[in-house]
Amino acid sequence: MTIMNDETREFVAMHRNEDVRELALKAKRVEGLDLPLALDQIAGWQIARKKLPQWASCEGIVYPPHISMEQCSSQFTAQYKSEIAQTLLAPAATVRARVSDSGESDNQTTKSEPQLSDSAESVMQTAKSAFQLSDSPESDTLVARSSMVDLTGGFGVDFSYLARGFSQATYVERQRHLCDLAEHNMAALGLDQARIVCGDGVEYLRQMGPVDFIYLDPARRDEHGSRTYAIEDCTPNVFELRDLLLVKSRFTLVKLSPMLDWRKAVVDFDGAVREVHIVATGNECKELLLVLGQQVHEEPSAPRVFCVNDNQRIDYDSAAYTQGLRIGGKPLPEAKNYLYEPNASIMKAGCFDLVEERFGVTQVGPSSHLFVSATPVADFPGRGFAIEAIGGMNKKDIKRLLNGTKQANIAVRNFPLTAPQLRKKLKLADGGPVYLFGTTMQGCDHVLLRTSKI
Description:
Elements: H1 6-15, H2 20-26, H3 35-51, H4 53-56, H5 66-71, H6 75-88, H7 118-128, E1 147-150, H8 157-162, E2 168-173, H9 176-188, E3 194-198, H10 201-207, E4 211-216, H11 238-248, E5 249-256, H12 262-268, E6 273-281, E7 284-293, E8 304-309, E9 312-317, E10 338-342, H13 344-349, H14 352-359, E11 362-363, E12 371-373, E13 382-391, H15 395-402, E14 407-413, H16 419-426, E15 429-441, E16 445-453
Parallel strand pairs: 1-2, 1-4, 2-3, 4-5, 6-8, 14-15
Antiparallel strand pairs: 5-7, 6-7, 8-9, 10-12, 10-13, 11-12, 13-16, 15-16
Helix pairs in contact: 1-3, 6-7
């Protein structure tokens, strides 16, 4: 790893809020200044300021080239992984920290919470407040009692957050320059328990002793550099490592492409998946996380599914909601006063019957994935709108719906026109306070719903 000299470090500190492209063209050539390195550090810090604010606030962090910064985990998703690990490893007698924010969990039984030791209390408290970590990374280190291995270290963002919950944390990575970078940055972050190993993760897995937790983020590019999504096409192939992972760790967390069908992935892992986490932020699905672990009961059990979009969270037993696409069991309310659009994690999970049951709303029609209700719904995991008018696609209804409106936000779900096509047909500009949805209701009627955001 190239270490910044004084001239380069001073240049970075002086110009890190400036446009990197302009700096590349206009920067004066100063003796001793490593301009390419300086520009990488400035660009990396500018990305980290939004994506990894704790890292950005830590002096001494060295950033990789731009593409690695674009591809690395965000602070939000890395912290969420840390929460998963600490909750999984919390004392079995305690109440699970990740109880659904939307109310009672399915098949929940009442438990009394025992008195915890100071160490256990610290672990549980951290799991419950994983999104409220101090701005100082050095102060986040947990009172931990376990061991973990990250077999696909990379830039080390996920490792840096996972490691805080363990007394022993090992980072494994084949590329020497990334190992050197990780060794430097983990020290800068105050992670004294971090151990950096330069080597092949699969070989390390075969030779290592058992640990409490393993993390894997398989590379999703083939030998030609093309992006791939199928688990068996990633490196390493986690399917091939399944049995070894179950032997070597209590739990393994696998990060996969959000493009994958999580139900098929669960089937393909043949009873090893304990939990499924669908993680979105800003209403964009970012990660699919699977928790692998030994089967507790003789009969295979369906995993629990966690849907996360920023601070919106629900979880459910997937065995109880196997008919996620079911339509027609609940008639539409006579008064359709409110429209609800699920967030990206709910859409990915496909748990639409769960949403109906838990929030008292009704699906508007097959494959539309929009919900209506007569009364407002508190804490719905998605966006809510007040319905002002509903009409068909005939000229009379359209004139009544628009009522002189010249601009609107347009979305379509299960509709014969795309949003741009509908906008062109209605001759509307984009934006404004009106939200117009084109969809198909029960009975196969194509309708427009004029709404305003709640």
